[in-house]
């Protein structure tokens, strides 16, 4: 039982669980803010119903996101005290800023919307939902700042065995902050959009609550369409940044062992770290060099350029990256298809698209996670690239048995929460499906919908 | 007054802010079963803290973040040293959060019972453990030359720290009760009245016992006061708060009662903080104590953080007050609420 392995496992597991929720929150919050804007400006009741429904789902993800997020802030201190001492001068500030600028904003206005929706004006409802969306997006910024500094540290000097800040903006806007932030947030918009698309598709397939399903689908599809296209640009930007600032990571992404000019863009293969080669490799010649440097003869570093103890785990990194790309590709196709059908006026009835959308609903969650695997495993063995190895970063005084204990507790609690969340989502969706189906049927029969007393 | 001193105060402000605000949330949660007997009463209790608990909890997150940023060696030593205790607090906070949010999603009694218990447990655990943690820090920790904690988990459950744990718990209970007195009426308010006098007494007695025990266990904590008697104004704040709370509540002036309780909580924390100054984590070997100087970040970081705090916090206070005002008055169960 090794403290390093156990702490890494725990951090990986808690980060994985946590990161199911913030992207969904960010994407969904933004869509809800748009709906609230539409309600405020047009006064149409359907937008009110849409806002309330999507907000009820949002509240579930937000709560678990918050709960699992506290774990992350605590864990730097509990399990990684050597790391905290080493980087605290630089790493702590973004976390504090996240609290001051983002957490307060989203939590305070969330409370207002959860309990005081009917006490405030339409304009205030929009403002509050905007601040929740803004808060969560800002929160992503600061945590990405912190994580990016681990990837591409700048604006510091080493003094007394610690990293000391020399340039605040240099550290905050290190080479990877902006590409990674844009990439993550765009991924969040995709996540929120496909969630709405999936559930709206479910309603349309079951022919229930069509009144809110159609406009929801339309808004989410537009979001998804713009986001997947933006993600192509942003993803490319990010990959180029990785190639320049984290060449070992890129080499692992590509399964590239030999340094090459005119490097091929790898499509598929089987990396073999023992033999230091990638078998059955299929790629597009010169494409990687061109994508990164705009020059098919440019040199890209291979893994062999780095000593074996400074290479990331290649198999895990390679496949995480590839799975992310495959899933992203699928989502892009789906969004393009959906947009095409929307323009042709056929999207609400196209069973193929709706079924595909329904079953693809949670794929963005996995896409985000595999992206993070690629990013974080690809950075190993460093916890701060080039400065501190992960193995040197753990808390020296925590007995491994205690880490095992907390690991098991988190696993049990988080599993329980996951089950509860799915349970709650399903109930909320089914309830809204039938509730308004009754009202709609009565509407079309020419009768006035009787208030059922069910709170909406 | 240098940057390090300023940050000592700012971290103190964040801790006091947290104790006063999430203090009432945790207090209400800890007293959940004693105050709420019927389903409707439980719903009122949940609704009283519902809009605020998340924002209140952020004071802890920001405090933790600020501690990490300003005094990273303290953050590292305390969080890793108190590993199991931190995990228990964390567990409590997670359970409290989902307890409140998930409770009313289903009408089934069994579902609600389960989340009720998690809401209670998630409130009670942190309410007790925070004081225990503070007690351990105050009496001095065994630290090695790298500032790592060299004790065990059970060492944290010593009589002094347990006493301070009970003191902290009584403070949160008192805070929660004065809040409930403000926000409810009828049977709930009566129950809160009854519990208040007992809790208030517990707080006073435990505080006095704590002071005596502290003099026995860590007399160095009184040195700052002996050197600068003007500082005694701070414990006087605690005293004022305690008296105000008692008298205001007995005259049904519940807003003032809450104010008094808040002053008492603030005074209690600041009294200890000023006793410890400039130590943040006194060590068994005084030469190894973590102070506001040897545990601190660079001046540049402290300055940057100060700018962040001075820009951000006033804005936070502004909209926080706005949201509290939207919910002013007694708790009303609404269709759209929980």
Quick rundown:
Chain A is 71% helix and 7% strand.
Please explain how this structure is put together.
The complex is a heterodimer of chains A (456) and B (338). Chain A has 456 residues and is mainly alpha-helical. Chain A has a domain of 235 residues. Chain A contains 14 helices and eight strands. A two-stranded antiparallel ribbon of chain A has the order 1-2. In chain A, helix 4 packs antiparallel against helix 5 and helix 5 crosses helix 7. The longest helix of chain A has 45 residues. The radius of gyration of chain A is 24 Å and the shape is globular. Chain A starts with a helix and ends in a 12-residue tail after the last helix. The C terminus of chain A is likely disordered. With 338 residues, chain B is mostly helical. Chain B has one domain. Helices cover 75% and strands 1% of the residues of chain B. A two-stranded antiparallel sheet of chain B has the order 1-2. In chain B, strand 1 and strand 2 form a beta hairpin. In chain B, helix 4 runs antiparallel to helix 13, helix 6 runs antiparallel to helix 7 and helix 8 runs antiparallel to helix 12. The radius of gyration of chain B is 20 Å and the shape is globular. Chain B starts with a helix and ends in a 12-residue tail after the last helix. Chains A and B meet through helix 3, helix 4 and helix 14 of A and helix 4, helix 5, helix 6 and helix 13 of B.
| Biggest sheet statistics of chain A | 2 strands, antiparallel
What amount of the residues of chain B lies in strands?
under 5%
Spans of chain B of 5+ residues with little confidence (pLDDT < 50)? none
Total of DSSP H or I helical runs spanning 4+ residues of chain B: 13
Largest sheet of chain B: 2 strands, antiparallel
């Amino acid at each position: 039982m090794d403290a390093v392995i156990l702490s890494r496992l725990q951090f990986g597991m808690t980060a994985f669980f946590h990161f199911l929720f913030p992207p969904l929150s960010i994407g969904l919050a933004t869509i809800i803010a748009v709906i609230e804007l539409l309600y405020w400006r047009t006064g149409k009741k359907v937008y009110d119903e849409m806002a309330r429904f999507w907000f009820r789902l949002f509240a579930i993800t937000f709560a678990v996101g918050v709960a699992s997020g506290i774990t992350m802030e605590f864990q730097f201190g509990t399990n990684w005290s050597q790391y905290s001492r080493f980087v605290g001068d630089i790493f702590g500030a973004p976390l504090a800023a996240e609290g001051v600028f983002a957490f307060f904003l989203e939590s305070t206005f969330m409370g207002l919307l959860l309990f005081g929706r009917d006490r405030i004006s339409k304009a205030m409802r929009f403002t509050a939902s905007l601040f929740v969306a803004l808060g969560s997006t800002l929160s992503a910024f600061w945590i990405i700042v912190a994580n990016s500094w681990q990837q591409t540290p700048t604006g510091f000097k080493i003094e007394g065995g610690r990293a000391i800040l020399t340039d605040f903006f240099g550290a905050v806007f290190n080479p990877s902050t902006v590409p990674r932030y844009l990439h993550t947030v765009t991924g969040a918009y995709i996540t929120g959009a496909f969630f709405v698309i999936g559930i709206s598709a479910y309603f349309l397939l079951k022919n229930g609550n069509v009144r809110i399903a159609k406009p929801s689908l339309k808004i989410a599809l537009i979001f998804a369409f713009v986001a997947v296209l933006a993600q192509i640009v942003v993803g490319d930007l990010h990959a180029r940044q990785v190639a320049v600032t984290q060449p070992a990571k890129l080499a692992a992404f590509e399964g590239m062992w030999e340094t090459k000019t005119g490097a091929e863009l790898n499509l598929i293969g089987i990396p073999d770290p023992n033999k230091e080669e990638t078998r059955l490799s299929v790629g597009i010649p010169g494409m990687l060099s061109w994508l990164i440097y705009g020059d098919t003869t440019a040199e890209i570093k291979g893994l062999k350029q780095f000593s074996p103890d400074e290479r990331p785990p290649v198999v895990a990194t390679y496949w995480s990256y590839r799975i992310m790309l495959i899933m992203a590709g699928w989502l892009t196709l789906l969004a393009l298809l959906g947009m095409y059908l929307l323009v042709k006026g056929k999207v609400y009835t196209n069973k193929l698209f709706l079924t595909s959308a329904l079953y693809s609903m949670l794929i963005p969650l996995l896409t985000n996670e595999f992206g993070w695997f690629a990013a974080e495993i690809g950075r190993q063995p460093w916890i701060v690239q080039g400065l501190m190895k992960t193995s040197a970063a753990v808390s020296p005084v925590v007995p491994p048995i205690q880490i095992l204990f907390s690991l098991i507790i988190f696993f049990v609690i988080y599993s329980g929460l996951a089950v509860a969340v799915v349970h709650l989502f399903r109930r909320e969706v089914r309830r809204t499906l039938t509730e308004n189906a009754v009202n709609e049927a009565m509407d079309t029969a020419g009768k006035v919908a009787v208030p059922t007393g069910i709170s909406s | 007054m240098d940057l390090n001193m300023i940050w000592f105060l700012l971290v103190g402000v964040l801790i006091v802010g947290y104790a006063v605000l999430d203090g009432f949330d945790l207090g209400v949660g800890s007293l959940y079963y004693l105050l709420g007997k019927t389903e409707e009463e439980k719903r009122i209790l949940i609704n009283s803290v519902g809009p605020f608990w998340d924002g209140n909890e952020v004071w802890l997150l920001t405090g933790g973040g600020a501690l990490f940023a300003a005094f990273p060696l303290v953050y590292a030593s305390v969080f890793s040293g108190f590993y199991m205790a931190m995990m228990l607090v964390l567990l409590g906070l997670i359970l409290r959060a989902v307890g409140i949010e998930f409770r009313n999603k289903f009408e089934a009694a069994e579902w609600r019972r389960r989340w009720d218990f998690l809401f209670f447990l998630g409130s009670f655990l942190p309410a007790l453990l925070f004081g225990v943690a503070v007690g351990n820090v105050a009496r001095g920790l065994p630290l090695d030359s790298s500032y790592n904690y060299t004790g065990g988990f059970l060492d944290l459950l010593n009589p002094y720290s347990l006493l301070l744990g009970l003191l902290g718990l009584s403070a949160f209970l008192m805070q929660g009760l004065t809040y409930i007195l403000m926000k409810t009426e009828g049977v709930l308010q009566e129950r809160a009245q009854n519990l208040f006098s007992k809790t208030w007494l517990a707080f006073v007695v435990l505080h006095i016992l704590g002071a005596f025990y502290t003099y026995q266990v860590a007399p160095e904590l009184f040195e700052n006061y002996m050197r600068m008697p003007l500082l005694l104004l701070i414990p006087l704040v605690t005293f004022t708060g305690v008296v105000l709370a008692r008298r205001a509540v007995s005259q049904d002036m519940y807003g003032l009662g809450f104010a008094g309780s808040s002053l008492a909580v603030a005074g209690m924390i600041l009294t200890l903080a000023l006793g410890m100054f400039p130590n943040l984590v006194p060590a068994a070997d005084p030469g190894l104590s973590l102070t506001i100087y040897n545990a601190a970040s660079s001046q540049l970081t402290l300055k940057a953080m100060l700018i962040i705090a001075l820009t951000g916090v006033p804005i936070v206070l502004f909209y926080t007050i706005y949201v509290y005002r939207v919910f002013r008055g007694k708790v009303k169960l609404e269709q759209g609420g929980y």
